[in-house]
């Protein structure tokens, strides 16, 4: 396994960054996972050699990081695993990439994902699915499946993903690693290719809570180029070892037994209850809470996400970015031809449904209604997490462990339903983390801890205490070369 802190110790003890990165590239080339869309070999090795000549300071000095292919990287192709963006090389870095570089990190490549982040399994990628390192016949989760598989298999010590409705936490859960969806506004979205901009955040995937906190510290904070971003108080690392004594965990009753908890795998449910007992043993208390509108979350999420997507994806007209076809025809035919050939079926489905939900006559019935439901869901979380309520909530991340490649892709609804525990968090804008809490038939199970707006400190502190008391994050998947 590759951990950020161990890598850094090696580098500070005189190890060569060039050798370390070369050995990662060696692994990636031999890998059967299809976790990467591109590796940035020339840039990464050049930067590593520079580092070896005169090492620089920074919390991530010399650390290789993999980036989801929806985050713009200057000079490195960024295509969101879509044919329509194939060949597009951004002329600028996303804010998070600038921050990683300022902290001394080395960008090693771009990871596979569901096309435009629309999916739960990384199977909608134009470049074929990524495989789960715990079982090559299974999906790694999605949409940041490439990032999660790469980290779990030791093909990167950490990675960035983006999470619109679960895309960091789901893959972290399926691959047995840690993933954080920060509070909406904590991390600048400047340079992230938008899917549903009112819901999404960039966040880290890493082998353990401390590594994830290290990356969080680097990428969070105000950026004037994203008007929704806010100043960050930080303190994620310094607050890590506070323990859980005095914290109250809320267990949403709707997520267990009847209601939205109905389709949950019994092993998943058992592992989450075991985790709750463990937290209690460590000095926390817990109580049942209620999120009464949670049953409407999936419907509201998919209407809002698809509506925003239909508007955001209008910019892909084949004239400004990527794929070019039929340039000798009139504009209208060129536009149609490029979009017909450039987008995959899931993206087309969402553009069509989103356009419908926003169209005159249906706007009030669908989109506006979904926004109202969103407010109710946000209020549910605020109530459950109010003073006198709980400090944090605990739920499963995914209702079941990783499923087989091909098993659900023909049935989009069953894929949408898999997001039942993750999408309410994006609707409410609160932060959440997924971390390993057990296994079912050798496949990892993820525990989701949810916090108050901008209270990442408590979230990370609780996750760290749980992790320190359990062995699950130490298990190594089969497919590690
Ligand atoms: N599975 C959800 C969707 O398809 C979430 C994806 C994401 O978070 N990007 O919208």
TrEMBL record:
InterPro entries: Amidase (IPR000120), Amidase_CS (IPR020556), Amidase_dom (IPR023631), AS_sf (IPR036928), GatA (IPR004412). It comes from the Archaea. It catalyses: L-glutamyl-tRNA(Gln) + L-glutamine + ATP + H2O = L-glutaminyl-tRNA(Gln) + L-glutamate + ADP + phosphate + H(+). Its EC number is 6.3.5.7. Residues 20-460 form the Amidase domain. The active site is at residues 68, 143, 167. It holds the Pfam family Amidase. Keywords: ATP-binding, Ligase, Nucleotide-binding, Protein biosynthesis. Belongs to the amidase family. GatA subfamily. HAMAP family: GatA. PANTHER family: GLUTAMYL-TRNA(GLN) AMIDOTRANSFERASE SUBUNIT A, MITOCHONDRIAL (PTHR11895:SF7), TRANSAMIDASE (PTHR11895). Heterotrimer of A, B and C subunits. Allows the formation of correctly charged Gln-tRNA(Gln) through the transamidation of misacylated Glu-tRNA(Gln) in organisms which lack glutaminyl-tRNA synthetase. The reaction takes place in the presence of glutamine and ATP through an activated gamma-phospho-Glu-tRNA(Gln). This is Glutamyl-tRNA(Gln) amidotransferase subunit A. It comes from Candidatus Methanocrinis natronophilus.
């Amino acid at each position: 396994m590759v951990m950020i802190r161990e890598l850094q110790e090696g580098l500070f003890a005189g190890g060569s960054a060039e050798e370390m990165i070369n050995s990662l590239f060696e692994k990636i080339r031999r890998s059967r996972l299809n976790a990467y869309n591109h590796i940035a070999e020339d840039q990464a090795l050049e930067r590593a050699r520079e580092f070896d000549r005169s090492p620089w300071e920074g919390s991530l000095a010399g650390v290789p990081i993999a980036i989801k292919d929806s985050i713009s990287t200057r000079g490195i192709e960024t295509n969101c695993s879509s044919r329509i963006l194939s060949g597009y090389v951004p002329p600028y870095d996303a804010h998070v990439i600038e921050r990683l570089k300022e902290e001394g990190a080395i960008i090693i490549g771009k990871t596979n994902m569901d096309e435009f982040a629309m999916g739960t399994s990384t199977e909608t990628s134009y470049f074929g699915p990524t495989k789960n390192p715990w079982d090559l016949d299974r999906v790694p989760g999605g949409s940041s499946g490439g990032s999660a598989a790469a980290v779990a298999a030791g093909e990167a010590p950490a990675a960035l993903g983006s999470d619109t409705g679960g895309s960091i936490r789901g893959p972290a859960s399926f691959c047995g690693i840690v993933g954080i969806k920060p509070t909406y506004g904590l991390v600048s979205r400047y340079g992230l290719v938008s899917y549903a901009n009112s819901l999404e955040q960039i966040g880290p995937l890493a082998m353990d809570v401390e590594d994830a906190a290290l990356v969080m510290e680097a990428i969070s904070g105000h950026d004037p180029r994203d008007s929704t971003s806010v100043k960050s108080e930080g303190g994620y690392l310094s607050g890590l070892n506070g323990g859980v004594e005095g914290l109250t965990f809320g267990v949403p009753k709707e997520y267990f037994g009847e209601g939205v908890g109905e389709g949950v795998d019994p092993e998943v449910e058992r592992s989450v209850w075991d985790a709750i007992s463990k937290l209690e043993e460590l000095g926390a208390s817990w109580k049942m809470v209620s999120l009464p509108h949670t049953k409407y979350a999936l419907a509201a999420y998919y209407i809002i996400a698809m509506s925003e997507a239909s508007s955001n994806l209008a910019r892909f007209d084949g004239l400004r970015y990527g794929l070019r076809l039929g340039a000798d025809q009139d504009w209208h035919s060129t536009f149609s031809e490029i979009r017909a050939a450039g987008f995959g079926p899931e993206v087309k489905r969402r553009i069509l449904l989103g356009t419908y939900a926003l169209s005159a006559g249906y706007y009030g019935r669908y989109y506006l209604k979904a926004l109202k439901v969103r407010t109710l869901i946000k209020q549910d979380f605020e109530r459950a997490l109010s003073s006198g309520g709980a400090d944090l909530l605990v739920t499963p991340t995914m209702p079941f462990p990783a499923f087989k490649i091909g098993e659900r892709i023909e049935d989009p609804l069953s894929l949408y339903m898999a997001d039942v525990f993750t999408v309410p968090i994006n609707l409410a804008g609160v932060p959440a983390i997924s971390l390993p809490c057990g296994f079912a038939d050798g496949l990892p199970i993820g525990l989701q801890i949810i916090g108050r707006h901008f209270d990442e400190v408590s979230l990370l502190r609780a996750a760290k205490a749980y992790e320190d008391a359990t062995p699950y994050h130490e298990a190594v998947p089969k497919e590690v070369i």
